[in-house]
Amino acid sequence: MLFLVAALLLLGTFIGTPAFLPLPATAVAATAVALWLLVFAARERRTRTRRTS
Fold first, then answer.
1. pLDDT of 1-53, one tens digit each?
2. Closest-CA residue to 26 (of 40, 10, 39)
3. What is the DSSP string of 13-37?
4. Residue 41 half-sphere exposure, CB side, CA atoms within 13 Å?
5. How many CA atoms lie within 13 A of 53 on its CB side?
């Protein structure tokens, strides 16, 4: 999942909207998306663990 985020960030930096943003703003946005995905994955894993036990 994080590989996908990194790949999309790199592609976006070179050909997408983030190319028009300063690098720090892009980094902050990428970090926010990565954290959101980590929280989502943790919640999903916890929910699945509770259902099976």
1. 778 888 887 887 777 766 778 889 888 988 998 999 999 999 999 888 777 65
2. 10
3. HHHSGGGGS-HHHHHHHHHHHHHHH
4. 8
5. 6
Give the pTM.
0.59
Q: How far is CA 38 from CA 8, 16, 17, 29, 43, in A?
A: 16, 24, 23, 14, 9
Cβ neighbours of 6 (radius 10 Å): 12
Cβ within 8 Å of residue 30, ≥6 positions away = 5, 9
Q: How many CB atoms lie within 10 A of CB 23?
A: 9
